[in-house]
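Is 6-O-phosphono-alpha-D-glucopyranose placement plausible here? Inputs below.
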Amino acid sequence: MCGIFGYVGQRNDAGSLVIDGLKNLEYRGYDSWGIACKIDETLSIEKDIGKISGIKTSNFSDSCALAIGHTRWATHGGVTTQNAHPHANEDETIAVVHNGILENYQELRAYLEKKGHSFKSETDSEVIPHLIEEYMKETGDFASAARRACKDFEGRFGFLALHTESNTLVAARNGSPLIIGVGEDGYFIASDIPAFLEHTKMVQYLDDGEMVVTDGNNIIFSNLETGEAIEKREIEITWSVEQAQKGEYDHFMLKEIMDQKESVARAVNQNEDQILTLAEAIKNAHGTFLVGCGTAATACMAAEYFFSVIAEKHVNFAPASEFKLYHHFLKPKSLVIVVSQSGETADVLEAMKVAKSKGSKVLAIVNSEGSTIDREADYSLLINAGPERAVASTKALTGQMAVLMLIAYAMNDKLREGQKLLLETSSKINDMLNPRYVNFIEELAEKIQEKSALFIIGKSWNYPMALESAIKIQEVSYVHAQGFAGGELKHGPIALIEEGTPCIALVGNDEVKADIISNAIELKSRGAFIIGVAPENNEVFDVWIKVPDAGNAQALVNIIPVQALAYFLAVKRGKDPDMPRNLAKSVTVK
Ligand code: G6P
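Reply from A.M.:
I modeled the complex. Tokens:
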């Protein structure tokens, strides 16, 4: 959730470099920020509440080769400058930025206070520099004191600590991701790759229970518990800098919606043998489960229908946060398919743990290569959507659905048919997302922007897309939105319909078309303003958003205009769609 970024090396612009890197992490969401730079042997700390965007990097000294920074989402302690990271020890020789929650911080703080340490913030994180300082009195050196401190921590953490005297950075991880960027003239350590992507594509991943020490010339990974050194591979990231930038668009969300012109085709470009092997694994599994959070969960729900209709195979969907309760059904021959854009979501990682504890195999469908989920799964497929930076997930969803649909086709020995359908769908999406089409959706948003509630109905795979539509509208425009299965309307939700209430009907040319149109008629007769997303017009629609006929892939095209509608509703209502309130891109806490 919070962003971490630090640098040590031969460059002398570490201050502005870290500020720029933090700006690249803004998409994670935050309410305050801070930076600590070593300048002429002393530590200079600057922090503030609010957004970092206005800060001039030229304010930061160009004689700094060691710096750390943070964007904070308040958890323990309110949104104040004092609570913003970095936190330092008394004499400001150690500064720390931290993600996660130290559950036993009160106990540690009481212990440190008895030893004479005083605290400036209400955060759990502030105990870290003080505890390291305390242990340095015994160990003498920074890295071993940091290791010793980690042994005292209960809870999840990923922290980066700077020590001015030894000119080193130490990072340790237990639950919150940290990645090392290997530069030509130093090392970068960040919670997310976009922080340093413009400087290097060579990365090393820190795993749970590990720590890393670097002075900018050398780097040593070790086991937190035993201190034993660990060899790390360098991996080259395939994402390009351009992919991680907004380009011509005002917001990442719109850029990523438009990226779907190509990203579905990229998702379909999979190793055929691997898809066939995985299709076989699902066929042979004693129980297959689909697990994800948020938007990835709606992809899983849609895939339940794909597997049912295309592969005639029953698979079970569960939100990752609920999956623990399914452990009774897991056996060594079960297969758990986890779906995640970031590959770091805490509840998904927890679901993987549950699966592994029962000996079940895990297949991951992820976007972020090298993420924890990607690395820890037994099999992993990348959706190749490129970096997704807007909090609201868009292109990852269609990529996830494309890969899951491909597997469903492969299970029925129709891999070629699946590839053909999805590639044709991709080209139809490309045609659909033309400027006139996007303008039309923008005008619709203008028309309904003042409405206080919006409802979405769908049937079959358009039902999870109705839920997904509601998520998109809620998270960026803050308009109350709810998705329903069309058939459930009569059992309650229809009571909410008033004259002029906008209702979106997601329709396909399929066996449930007549039913969903009939549901739309029911809504209209109660006064609803019907927005039909459908390949063909219908007299019940007050507005028709035309989508191509995509057969079994209809869910992939129907969701796209609604993503755009959510985006424009946010913009028209004066909200920043890339940084919605209270939300984070990567939810690494349970
Ligand atoms: C957060 C994001 C959502 C995302 C969900 C799951 O809530 O804001 O957009 O769908 O996490 O994330 P994942 O990275 O696992 O797909």
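Short version: The mean pLDDT is 94.
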